[in-house]
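ARCHIVE CARD
CATEGORY: sequence design from structure
SOURCE FIELD: tokenized fold
FIELD CONTENT:
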């Protein structure tokens, strides 16, 4: 049964309207006057209206009579006396002190608090002189790791304006206002998060390679997960702010890095009770091995074959703890080569000298020495013949005939830009500029490219032969010119790539050639740079014994090659000296007058008239005249001669050496810095034809682990290809370190070896495969793995491998990792932040 509402007609009820500021002072006695206070809070008792004074009521006139309205206002009977003749009420009402209504008093209190709040904010928000906020403002004490920030709020909180758009985002993105902008400030210190420039810092797991869920909360079957996702405002299709997981201002003891399993399961929807109860099996095929090791070392063959052999011949070379009667899985010799890294997480291999040097130390100074600077052998007959037929007949001119036993590959990176470009085009067309075919010489464009390459070598010889900078176009000489040319070719760290080269090495190399020929070569370069090339060569000329008069341009008058004084010999220091002589008219180290060494007219050593050394008429070495025979028949005693020293055999410890006009280098030991610099530089530029050719042939990369290059680096160190997302080769990387060590790359899964080694040993997890078919070793490139079609090794991909050890499974870990033993929280093994 419904009840009717209270009547609100003014003749049937009185009430206080809620918007009134004042109420009658007698309202608390339930007898308020019918007029109540006015808007100013003044009592209206006895107030006159049209000359009539009000009382308990205000009489109303009906016809010519005044009627009491008390009954209408208060109920009951009208007063006995009735209204006065003038229409005033006969019953006066005493004035009262009106009171404020509850609404009015609440409004005043609110206003007072608002004023006080503003005043308080004005005081505490007054910035310090430094511009930082007042120390009175604090969201709470920072964690110990961030305590150094103090009151510098701007270090972590961005100053984004609160525009209408941003306010809208606060509702649309679950209170995510400014969170990403604040997170970007975190990267000013945590610069390693999210890759270079923090490009992936706010993506799920700070990785651009992970698949993102569109709506993780909707997929969850557990209300708690849905609620957590909602409260976190989390949607992995959007950026995730740092503060989503790392909440500050909870005190110095707060651990802001620790995540709970429930936080992880907001996104990871395959929920389970624990690691041993529901955790998926390790999905990686050869877990925990994701690629081949950087150092090629077969544990099985060493323990089953090499170490037993060493035990018989050189037992001192065996690792500590090795026992021939134990298989590798039972040996305790792991620590002889492996120790935990400084952070404890990874195992690193001890230095070469401790782990491998006892057996393999000598290998690092063997191998073929590398010809660094020299003239490659060139067949110029056909080349000069074609040039003679040109519109402007010319020839290559003088070429140094001596050549190294192999091509001096580093020289190609020292050529001019035009010469390098021409050489790259020739190799692309499969044309050898030093032994070109008739077909190649018949092509005008090919002929032009070959000419550029050959002149590039001659210009290099000229520019490295100068002692005065103004004689070179670059205004640089010596080491500076070498570094300039190598840097121009695009190599970084050019200083390291010719480190330790002796100052006189190139000069000694020049002295291995005929002085006259070399001077002619230098002169031809100077004339060619002025536009005048050597004339055509019709027939092979007889070797000239006299230096052309014009060849001396650029040298002091009557100087020898490199001489400083008048009438010097080849490098002599005094007047009329021979090659290194100390006295007037001395020969090569001789002490007697008129014994010249290749520069004086009488008794010269190789280029002058009379008694030359193999090139001149009359009394040459090996082609003596009758006079020489007669002298011998007369029984004259020849001067004793020193046996020559082979620098390649003498310098067993490597380094720079010069022989036959070629400057060589041999590795000085393990991790030779110069060899390492060249390999790194070439590998990084392996996508470029000339760099690849140098790496392939100069360092014998095409033979892989069978490389015979000096240092034997590629025998043990893997070369891993680097490709862009489209699969194009961009370069390669030499793996100087093993897979262990203190790695900078952060992975999704971590394993801390240090505490595990206290409770168990390596054998519990790492069991060597019985590698009967050498699958582990076959994953590395060898001499038969070069693909001539692609011009690249077929085994340069580090992801195509076979591990030396058996893979691990979940069962191996769950023995200890459960809720009752060492714990099974997600973050014990998994990192949120990891690299792509």
């Amino acid at each position: 049964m419904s009840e009717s509402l209270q009547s609100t007609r003014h003749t049937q009820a009185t009430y206080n309207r809620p918007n009134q500021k004042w109420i009658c002072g007698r309202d608390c006695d339930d007898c308020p006057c019918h007029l109540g206070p006015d808007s100013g809070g003044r009592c209206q008792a006895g107030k006159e209206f049209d000359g009539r004074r009000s009382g308990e009521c205000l009489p109303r006139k009906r016809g010519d009579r005044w009627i009491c309205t008390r009954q209408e206002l208060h109920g009951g009977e009208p007063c006995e006396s009735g209204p006065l003749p003038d229409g005033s009420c006969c019953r006066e009402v005493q004035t009262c002190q009106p009171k404020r209504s509850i609404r009015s008093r609440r409004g005043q209190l609110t206003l007072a608090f608002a004023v006080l709040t503003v005043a308080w904010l004005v005081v505490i928000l007054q910035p310090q002189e430094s511009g930082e906020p007042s120390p009175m403002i604090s969201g709470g004490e920072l964690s110990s790791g961030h305590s150094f920030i103090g009151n510098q709020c701007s270090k972590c909180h961005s100053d984004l304006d609160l525009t209408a758009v941003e306010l809208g985002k606060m509702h649309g993105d679950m209170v995510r206002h400014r969170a990403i902008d604040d997170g970007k400030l975190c990267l000013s210190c945590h610069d390693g998060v999210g890759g270079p420039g923090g490009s992936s810092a706010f993506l799920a797991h700070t990785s651009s390679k992970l698949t993102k869920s569109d709506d993780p909360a909707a997929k969850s079957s557990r209300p708690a997960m849905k609620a957590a996702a909602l409260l976190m405002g989390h949607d992995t299709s959007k950026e995730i702010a740092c503060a989503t997981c790392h909440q500050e201002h909870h005190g110095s003891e707060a651990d802001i890095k620790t995540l709970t399993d429930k936080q992880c399961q907001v996104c990871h929807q395959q929920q389970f009770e624990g690691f041993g109860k529901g955790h998926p099996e390790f999905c990686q095929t050869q877990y925990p091995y994701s690629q081949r090791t950087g150092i090629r070392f077969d544990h099985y063959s060493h323990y089953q074959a090499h170490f037993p052999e060493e035990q018989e011949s050189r037992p001192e070379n065996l690792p500590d703890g090795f026992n021939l009667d134990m298989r590798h899985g039972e040996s305790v010799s792991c620590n002889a080569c492996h120790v935990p890294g400084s952070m404890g997480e990874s195992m690193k291999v001890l230095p070469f000298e401790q782990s491998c040097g006892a057996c393999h130390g000598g290998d690092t100074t063997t191998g073929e020495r590398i010809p660094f600077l020299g003239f490659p052998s060139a067949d110029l007959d056909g080349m000069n013949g074609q040039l003679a037929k040109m519109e402007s007949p010319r020839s290559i001119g003088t070429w140094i005939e001596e050549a190294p036993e192999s091509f001096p590959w580093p020289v190609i990176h020292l050529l001019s830009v035009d010469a390098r470009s021409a050489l790259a085009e020739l190799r692309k067309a499969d044309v050898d500029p030093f032994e070109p075919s008739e077909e190649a010489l018949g092509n005008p464009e090919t002929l032009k490219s070959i000419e550029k390459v050959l002149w590039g070598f001659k210009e290099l010889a000229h520019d490295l032969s100068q002692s005065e900078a103004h004689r070179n176009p670059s205004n640089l000489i010596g080491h500076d010119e070498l570094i300039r040319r190598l840097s121009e070719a695009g190599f970084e760290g050019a200083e390291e790539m010719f480190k330790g080269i002796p100052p006189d090495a190139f000069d000694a190399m020049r002295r291995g050639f005929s002085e006259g020929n070399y001077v002619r070569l230098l002169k031809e370069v100077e004339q060619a740079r002025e536009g005048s090339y050597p004339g055509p060569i019709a027939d092979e000329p007889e070797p000239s014994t006299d230096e052309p008069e014009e060849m001396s341009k650029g040298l002091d008058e009557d100087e020898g090659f490199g001489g400083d004084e008048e009438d010097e010999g080849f490098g002599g220091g005094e007047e009329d000296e021979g090659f290194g002589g100390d006295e007037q008219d001395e020969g090569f180290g001789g002490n007697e007058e008129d014994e010249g060494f290749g520069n004086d007219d009488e008794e010269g050593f190789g280029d002058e008239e009379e008694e030359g050394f193999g090139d001149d008429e009359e009394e040459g070495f090996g082609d003596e005249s009758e006079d020489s025979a007669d002298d011998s028949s007369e029984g004259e005693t020849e001067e004793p001669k020193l046996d020559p020293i082979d620098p390649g055999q003498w310098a067993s410890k490597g380094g720079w050496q010069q022989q036959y006009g070629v400057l060589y280098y041999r590795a000085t030991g393990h991790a030779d810095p110069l060899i390492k610099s060249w390999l790194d530089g070439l590998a990084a530029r392996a996508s470029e034809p000339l760099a690849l050719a140098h790496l392939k042939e100069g360092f014998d990369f095409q033979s892989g682990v069978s490389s015979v290059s000096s240092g034997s680096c590629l025998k043990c160190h893997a070369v891993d290809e680097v490709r862009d997302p489209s699969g194009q080769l961009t370069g390669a990387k030499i793996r100087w370190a093993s897979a262990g060590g203190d790695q900078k790359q952060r992975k999704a899964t971590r394993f801390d070896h240090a505490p595990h080694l206290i409770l168990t040993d390596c054998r519990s997890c790492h069991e060597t495969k019985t590698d009967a078919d050498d699958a582990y070793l076959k994953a590395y490139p060898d001499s038969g793995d070069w693909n001539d079609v692609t011009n690249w090794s077929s085994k340069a991909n580090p992801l195509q491998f076979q591990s030396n050890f058996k893979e691990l499974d979940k069962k191996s870990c769950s023995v200890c990792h459960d809720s009752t033993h060492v714990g099974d929280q997600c973050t014990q093994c998994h990192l949120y932040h990891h690299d792509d």
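CARD ANNOTATION: The first helix runs from residue 70 to 74. Residues 416 and 456 are 6 Å apart (CA to CA).
SHELF: design records, drawer C
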